[in-house]
Amino acid sequence: MSPADLDRLRTAVRDVPDFPKPGILFKDITPILGDGELFRLAVAGLTEAAAIHRPHRIAGIDARGFILGGAVANLLGVGFVPIRKKGKLPWRCESVAYALEYGESVVEVHVDAVQPGERVVIVDDLLATGGTAAAASQLIRQLGGELCDLLFLIELGFLGGRAKLTGAPVTALLTF
């Protein structure tokens, strides 16, 4: 991906102050999703980064990771694995709880979503504090998958989330 393309994507990210609560500066990717050319650029960059691992599956984290990860899986011709919030998947699941700033959350995946030894790349829109991505990584490993990369459109580097993600590379197209 060219520096000019990365600049176009970076410029399109909208800052939304005080969302979802006061003091948070939310990085909104909907301007990228809503522009066909920018969406294509973002998906192409993520697909290029994922392809080097020759994954069997792309796992996307609820919910924007579904949009980006589904597109990447489609272009690579591999299966897509949804990692969802607790209670949203209709069959038997593996679950992992993780800490939030004020409490706890749980993510789940179907028990047969990844077979032992399959190479998996996790895709999401944003890496912040790393809790959700770390839990998603744990789920893939619990199923016996080989986690090849954690791939993000955006990383908020100042929050240090990368430090929570061990045992696989972490790749972000844009860093703020």
Give the CATH class of the domain at 54-175: Alpha Beta
How many extended strands? Answer: 9
The side-by-side strand order for the widest beta sheet comes to 5-6-4-3-7-8-9
Helical content class = 25-40%
Largest sheet: 7 strands, mixed
Q: Averaging pLDDT over every residue, what do you get? A: 96
End-to-end separation in angstroms reads 18 Å
CATH architect. name of the domain at 54-175? 3-Layer(aba) Sandwich
Stated plainly, the CATH topology of the domain at 54-175 is called Rossmann fold
Radius of gyration, in angstroms, nearest whole number? 15 Å
Number of helices: 5
Order of helices and strands: HEEHHEHEEEEHEE
* Principal-axes shape call: globular
Q: Any overview of this molecule?
A:
This protein is α/β, with parallel strands linked by helices and 176 residues long. It has a domain at 54-175: Rossmann fold (3-Layer(aba) Sandwich), CATH 3.40.50.2020. 31% of the residues lie in helices and 35% in strands. The protein has helices spanning 3-12, 30-33, 36-51, 64-76, 131-142, and strands spanning 14-17, 25-28, 57-61, 79-85, 93-100, 103-110, 119-127, 146-155, 170-175. The strands form 2 sheets. The chain has a 7-stranded mixed beta sheet, sandwiched between helices. Strand 7 (119-127), helix 5 (131-142) and strand 8 form a beta-alpha-beta unit. Helix 3 (36-51) crosses helix 4 (64-76). The radius of gyration is 15 Å and the shape is globular.
